From TrEMBL:
GO biological process, one term: carbohydrate metabolic process
Catalytic activity: D-mannose 6-phosphate = D-fructose 6-phosphate
Enzyme class, first EC level, given as a word: isomerase
Comment on bound cofactor: Binds 1 zinc ion per subunit.
Entry keyword annotation includes Transferase: no
Single GO term (MF): zinc ion binding
Active site: residue positions: 193
Protein name per Swiss-Prot or TrEMBL: Mannose-6-phosphate isomerase
Domain Phosphomannose isomerase type I catalytic, chain residue ranges per copy: 7-119
Matches recorded under Gene3D superfamilies: Jelly Rolls
KW Zinc (keyword) present: yes
Amino acid sequence: MSQSPIFLIPEFKDRIWGGTALKDQFEYDIPSETTGECWAISAHPNGPNKVASGPYEGKTLIELWENHRELFGNVEGKAFPLLTKILDANKDLSVQVHPDDIYANENENGELGKTECWYIIDCKENAEMIYGHTARSKTELVTMVNSGDWDGLLRRVAIKPGDFFYVPSGTIHALCEGTLVLETQQSSDTTYRVYDYDRTDQSGNKRELHLNKAIDVTTVPHVDGLVDESTSQKEGITIKTFVQAEYFSVYKWDVDGQAELSQEHPFMLGSVIAGEAALLHEGVSYPLKKGSHFILPAETGDFQIEGTCTIIASHV
């Protein structure tokens, strides 16, 4: 028996660096003028999504993972492995680094590590991000952190819309002001802050740094995450492969017309970041608009997308 697509209701997070781009660009009903994150496809306890419609309406993705593992090809693991977010970096994010699975499991109550990647949906002119560092040894890293030589330590990279960055655990990184990003990541909420520009919150307190753990997990010397991009075309669709890596594979589907597709993975995630279309499956038409997020379960089989839209798709 085939399984129909599962659409999810986004969850939103207020952040010191957030803004209104999630409302302005995606027409989401955001909770504040400093909304930094849309958790779009999440079964993480800090922000699980609910199913929007269909037989599982109102259930959380955690409940589906725990009670209907057949939807996910009976993939093993205690936690749903992926998390999709849209981030509005209205101001600079803190400079941070994430642990790998082994370190997180030992030091963060069994949490997964956090390898992630970013697709730049939009950014201001001359935008940049922090990606990597210049230290050649742990000793040099500690010296530069302790002396506050951030300009010397942090590597800045120019970015533009359509760029893709793979950010393995252990990579020092930060999104900078004026950037809107779709993030595909392991399902983890563990972040070690290295530097926060000495910012204070409304009460005048600086946010906590996690320097010991950060130095523990940082890869030294820095290694760029490998992105091996390729493009294929068939009728109605151009598929760009960004990365096929240990924790996830990520693609961009540019649909123009009618595309015939097939779901051959344990499950697939999809996020519409531009345009409008319909997903046709077994005689039912599901509207796809900018800001829709969905899961194609294990037994989806063949489906069509009709219209003009851009989707970021991923699978384990």
